[in-house]
What does this fold into?
Amino acid sequence: MGEKELRFSSFMFVKVAPAFRHLISNEKIAAKQELEGMVALRQDDLFLRTYSLQGLRAEFDMLLWLVSSDITHLQQAWSNISATGAGRYLVAKKSFLGFFELTPEQMVCEQECGVVPAGLFGKYQYMLLHPLSRTCEWHQMSAEEQTLYLTERKNTLEAFPSVAEHMFESYGLDDQDCIVVRESNNLRELAAVTQKLREKRIKHFAKCDTPSLLCIGSDLRVILDRLGN
It folds into this structure.
């Protein structure tokens, strides 16, 4: 059996330092263009999506979602971002790290589409993210018992076809067991399915599933323009 094709996913929540807003107009423009140019050069070897949290959370302004086949590429990407143009004013406040395994079908598509198969995730306007750690009771269950609870949860999700969910395993890499990401272009349904999932029996085996962070997909330039005002 060959080695599994893993992709490492970093969710970096940042705050923009007040000094960025105090720059004069020309300095802001140059700083934004420098960061945008650097990010554009990394698109071939890195999946990168930007989301706004401005006005939604007091402690964060923006989310940078990065995916790579090599965890050291994530380190280098953040190093480049935080040392380039407007990136010098981005202060990392919270992060989550996880991984997922490509299926054989996705591996074929990945060869044609880049680091992440086109359309796999990151294509919806709204994203709700939260860490998840299960209780000891959950981990002591048999696989058959876990399957019963997971099937009930899966059936709930399937009743909301406009919502896509992704799980990124974190055990051994970060504090949580996994990172749960739900995406949709329909904010009402995104909230509704989250409520329904909270009513399922599997919820009793969640030791920690906060913070729950709503992020709105937006181009980097648009986010920086708003934050620079």
